Amino acid sequence: MRGYLLLTEARSGSNWLGSLINNSGNMGRSSEWLSPKIHRLDTSSLSWEEFFEEIIRKSSTENGNFGLKIFPNHLFITREVYGMDFIQYCLSVHDVALVFLRRDDTLRQAISYARARQTRSFAAHIGGNSDPQYDFEEIAKCFFYIRDSYSFWRSYLELTGAKSTEFVYENLVPDPSPFVSCVAEHLGVPAPGALQTTMAVQRDGVTDEWVARFDEDRRSAHLLDAYDRREHIPGKVKNFFKLATRSLEPRYPFAF
């Protein structure tokens, strides 16, 4: 089977680009299929092989092509359960193209991510459950997290020696066809003649306002507080027991 894996991080434009590909009907079904909230599989009852085949099935169109986007968090969640590297295994059994997508403007990406985490609205057509409130530390935390994710992907690709193609979101906004054509060529299908999507850009005046406030606040902010990744441990009896017996395991990398 042929497929592509889009390696990126949240709020990188991957939903928009994925919708352009999904609307073709023959280039896979792009989504965050490794996220438990998306795949909704009972991993406790599935072997690695069964889980992998289910992910491929969910991400495939009828012609057998598949596609999914992966954040570092997804990769480590899967390893926590199965002890496997999904990407390396996928490369070993299928004809897969790796595509690395990033944004140049990390601050606006971080603001978008912070707003989405507050409102739980990760697309313009999904209504939020609250009004976003400016939070310097949350934006800075998202900024650090996004930069760490991009650094991870670059290092991962270099160390594995895997061939990949890199795209920058800002370069694709005027014309996303280079991205779509790259995926279509690998999958062996014609690139769509007309690119269609129902998604809209979530950017608005609030983003510009928060950029200005953040630029002012960062001059006197305590940035180390935003980068501190230590987990707050709820004061539950079972956690006190785990601490006492040294059986409380740290979170996996990129847990956020």
Automatic annotation (TrEMBL):
Residues 4-217 form the Sulphotransferase Stf0 domain. It comes from the Bacteria. GO terms for molecular function: transferase activity. InterPro entries: P-loop_NTPase, Stf0, Sulfotransferase_Stf0_dom. This is LpsS.
